[in-house]
């Protein structure tokens, strides 16, 4: 495959949908400490740490496909670097549902995104059980690696071999199987610990309660919950992600309704029952952090801009305002009951755009600016600057400038000047979330490495690509010995 590095992305790209869809297949093997072969560039000596990635690893059982890849069982990949030399370990998360279904090679649980059990509507109606699929994110908290799925509790894994230890309550912090977000934030700028892990769990219904938790994640008390607060809001809340600043936790409640009837009647998955309500106003729930100067105060609720958001990029405080960057969609993207997710028409789906909300805490208003109108997702900043003003963001984006398509390129944008540079794997390469690892030898914001798991459609296999975060030059490409479907989130942990 020829990778193209260029300042301007091609406006007339082509991608082969079969190349893209070929990533969707079951992961066939589990490996332990398998050395990786480099196919381009050279090992990067200063890398000492582990790249953890999570994503669906089982998409079909006994001839039945999941209805949406988000319903696939979680498979963790860990690529460990020692003085720049990488080796790969990968394991399925041995959840209760994974083990039950593996035994008979058949889906016996309904999926949130529309996967049905066999036997039609009658066999699915009134079955409201769900499977904790542990497929969304993987992080290290204290001495444990956690596989996360937002609607239920985390699974603890052995950090060395990824063996599943089991569902954890984090030492009694969580009730049995209590919801624990798949989007924790690492805060390196708090005065309470050199690293805090800030996260939330949501209990939703006619009223929704957000539990905001802050754990120490460094030193002797790493893994210990040090801050815990709960706030209740009116109405059903669907919150996948949030953002933090030094003093605030910011949630965007999309203007959507949840009508559970088709789910209860066995016609749709629960997430397929979410629908935008144009008569409703989206809201920001802005909760004071108990580690900040507004501790003990009640949350602030402010009308939010129209649109749907899964992921935020970063937020920071400026005078009495919060500046929040997010990926906005015009509407909630969902794969309908009669559609095949491997053959979707990208033109019919809303695309993500990088936008900035300026939230005026004193005036109680917000306004929205577009930072880039190219379709993108999975945007990040230098992790050391999370919660503070960052000058740069890196993200996965389409190869073309306009319209929806698979994510094939990586873009770096200067958030102040809006200057952009890009690296593209089109036509046959497909990218995932870029993970930015700051350089150990420089404090400059954009010096470091970008790790990207890439689906190489030419050889129908996965590559690990490492780019220079500053100029997006290719530093190293490794051909992986396993094929990994298009995945979700991951993190880097220094040795
Ligand atoms: Fe996410």
Please, could you describe this protein's structure?
The chain is mainly beta. It has a single domain (4-27, 142-336, 349-494), classed as 7 Propeller (Methylamine Dehydrogenase, Chain H). Helix content is 5%, strand content 42%. It contains 4 helices and 36 strands. The strands form 9 sheets. Strands 3, 31, 32, 33, 34 and 35 form a 6-stranded antiparallel beta sheet that branches. The longest helix has 9 residues, at 96-104. The model is unreliable at 1-11 (pLDDT under 50). Bound molecules: fe (ii) ion. Fe (ii) ion (FE2) binds at residues 183, 240-241, 310-311, 489. Residues 183, 240-241, 310-311, 489 line the site of fe (ii) ion.
Bound molecules: fe (ii) ion
Secondary-structure-derived class: mainly beta
Helix content: under 10%
Determine Rg (CA atoms, Å): 21 Å
The chain-level mean pLDDT equals: 91
pLDDT < 50 runs, ≥5 residues? 1-11
- How does the overall form come out from the CA principal axes? globular
Count of the domains:
1
CATH topology: Methylamine Dehydrogenase, Chain H
Q: What is the beta-strand fraction?
A: 35-45%
Count of alpha/pi helices:
4
What is the CA–CA distance across the termini? 32 Å
CATH class: Mainly Beta
Instruction: Say how many strands there are.
Output: 36
Question: Largest sheet, if any?
Answer: 6 strands, antiparallel
SSE topology:
Layout: E1 4-6, H1 17-21, E2 34-35, E3 37-41, E4 49-58, E5 60-61, E6 64-65, E7 73-82, E8 85-92, H2 96-104, H3 120-124, E9 137-141, E10 144-148, E11 155-157, E12 164-167, E13 185-187, E14 196-203, E15 207-216, E16 225-234, E17 243-244, E18 248-253, E19 256-258, H4 261-264, E20 274-276, E21 283-288, E22 300-303, E23 308-318, E24 321-329, E25 353-360, E26 365-372, E27 376-380, E28 392-398, E29 407-414, E30 420-424, E31 429-430, E32 435-438, E33 448-456, E34 461-468, E35 474-479, E36 490-494
Antiparallel strand pairs: 1-30, 2-8, 3-35, 4-7, 4-36, 5-6, 7-8, 9-10, 10-11, 11-12, 13-14, 14-15, 15-16, 17-18, 18-21, 19-20, 21-22, 23-24, 24-25, 25-26, 27-28, 28-29, 29-30, 31-33, 32-33, 33-34, 34-35
């Amino acid at each position: 495959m020829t990778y193209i590095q260029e300042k301007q992305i091609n406006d007339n790209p082509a991608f082969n949908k079969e190349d893209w869809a070929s990533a969707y297949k079951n992961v066939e093997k589990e490996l332990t400490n398998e050395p990786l072969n480099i196919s381009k560039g050279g090992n990067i000596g200063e890398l000492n740490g582990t790249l953890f990635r999570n994503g669906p690893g089982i998409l079909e059982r006994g001839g039945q496909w999941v209805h949406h890849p988000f319903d696939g069982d979680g498979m963790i990949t860990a690529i460990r670097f020692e003085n720049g030399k990488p080796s790969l370990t990968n394991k399925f998360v041995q959840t209760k549902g994974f083990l039950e279904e593996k035994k008979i090679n058949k889906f016996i649980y309904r999926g949130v995104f529309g996967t049905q059990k066999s036997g039609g509507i009658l066999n699915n109606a009134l079955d409201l059980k769900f499977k904790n699929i542990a497929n969304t994110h993987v992080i290290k908290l204290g001495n444990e690696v956690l596989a996360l799925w937002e609607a239920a509790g985390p699974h603890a894994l052995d950090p060395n071999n990824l063996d599943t230890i089991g569902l954890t309550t984090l030492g009694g912090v969580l009730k049995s199987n209590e919801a624990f977000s798949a989007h924790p934030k690492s805060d390196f700028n708090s005065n309470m610990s050199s690293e805090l892990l800030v996260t939330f769990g949501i209990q939703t219904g006619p009223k929704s309660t957000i539990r905001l938790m802050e754990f120490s994640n460094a030193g002797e008390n790493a893994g210990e919950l040090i801050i815990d607060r709960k706030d209740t809001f009116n109405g059903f809340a669907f919150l996948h992600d949030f953002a933090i600043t030094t003093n605030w936790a910011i949630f965007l409640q999309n203007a959507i309704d949840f009508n559970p009837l088709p789910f209860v009647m066995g016609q749709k998955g629960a997430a397929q029952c979410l629908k935008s309500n144009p008569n409703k106003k989206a809201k920001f729930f802005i909760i004071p952090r108990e580690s900040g100067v507004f501790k003990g105060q009640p949350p602030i609720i402010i009308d939010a801009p129209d649109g749907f958001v899964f992921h935020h990029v970063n937020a920071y405080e400026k005078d009495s305002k919060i500046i929040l960057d997010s990926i906005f969609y015009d509407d909630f993207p969902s794969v309908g009951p009669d559609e095949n997710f491997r053959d979707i028409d990208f033109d019919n789906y809303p695309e993500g755009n990088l936008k900035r909300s300026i939230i005026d805490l004193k005036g109680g208003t917000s306004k929205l600016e577009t930072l880039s109108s190219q379709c993108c997702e999975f945007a990040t900043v230098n992790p050391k600057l999370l919660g503070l003003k960052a000058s740069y963001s890196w993200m996965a984006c389409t190869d073309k400038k306009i319209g929806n398509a698979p994510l094939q390129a990586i873009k770096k944008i200067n958030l102040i000047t809006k200057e952009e540079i890009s690296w593209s794997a089109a036509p046959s390469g497909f990218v995932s979330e870029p993970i930015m690892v700051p350089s150990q030898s420089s404090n400059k914001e954009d010096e470091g490495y970008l790790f990207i798991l890439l689906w190489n459609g030419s050889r129908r296999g996965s590559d690990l690509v490492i780019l220079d975060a500053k100029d997006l030059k290719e530093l190293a490409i490794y051909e992986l010995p396993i094929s990994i479907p298009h995945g979700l989130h991951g993190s880097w942990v220094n040795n």
